[in-house]
Amino acid sequence: MAHDHHDTHHRQDAGHSHSHGHGHSHGHGHDHDHTDLDWAEMAPVLEAQAELYTPLYRQAMTWLAREVTEPGLVVDVGSGPGVVSCLFADTFPGARVLAVDGAEPLLERARDRAARLGAADRFGTLAGDLPGVLGELEYPADLMWASQSLHHLGDQRAAVAALAGHLAPGGTLAVLEGGLPARFLPRDIGIGRPGLQARMHALEEDSFAEMRANTPGSVAETEDWPAMLTAAGLEHTGTRSFLLDLPAPLSDEARAYVTTALSRLRDRIGDGLDATDRDTLDRLLDPADEASAHRRTDVFVLVAHTVYTAVRPA
């Protein structure tokens, strides 16, 4: 199995911090810029969001386990701080799990988490830029999971082909991309103009398109993931969407996620909102305001993520 690498590399993806279908700061406030973020500082945010999304990930893993019964090696491509990697270790107790990411501070958190959960003896990490670092795998994967990481790579079709090349015969590649944007607010929240979050989603789509266009080596690609998987020589075996439904009233953890996600959206797309919507968003982020997301009783979390699976022919 791949050995651990402890060099620090600039991370290609935003980990598991997207706040919507694509706005993965993967709170998923998913950041789509490629600046040198302080990953050690971001790690708690990424962990909190992935922990909140655990019911969704567990649904996906239950589904995957019907196709992949006893994998020897599970590789989490773009693992972030390892919350999902450790869920794989729990789902497949006989497997070795490898968390792969470009940010060593996040992989350090992943190793610590695996140790806390008693899985350190079958848990490894690999630091480096995707997909090239996968060339350091010592043997091919029986299950490879890429959650909102491929869209941060310039040539997504080539990236899928590269991942497919590191699967064992009969191995499965599972790609989580797309779905439905996270919704936190009713259409009419009693302040500002109704439909605020729908307008924010439109700006997020524009931000995502700009991120894709500005990604080094970007290649325009129709986002037909089954077709990309098939072009890579794999057999598409399934597509399914999984729902995270946290109705109001929210737990303190879920509310903190919402306020963090909205704050990060304010930083990223706030300038694209008109003055009325900006003022409304600022009120939602003001803890002293009775109408803020910190205090409202109608805040919720509703999001869907889509997973595509494909098998390398034996």
UniProtKB/TrEMBL annotation:
Pfam families: Methyltransf_12. Residues 1-35 are annotated as: Disordered. InterPro entries: Methyltransf_12, SAM-dependent_MTases_sf. Residues 17-27 have a biased composition (Basic residues). Keywords: Methyltransferase, Transferase. Residues 75-173 form the Methyltransferase type domain. One of its GO terms (molecular function) is methyltransferase activity. CDD domains: AdoMet_MTases. It comes from the Bacteria. Transmembrane segments: none annotated. GO terms for biological process: methylation. The keyword Transit peptide does not apply. PANTHER family: CLASS I SAM-DEPENDENT METHYLTRANSFERASE, METHYLTRANSFERASE. This is Class I SAM-dependent methyltransferase. It comes from Streptomyces rochei.
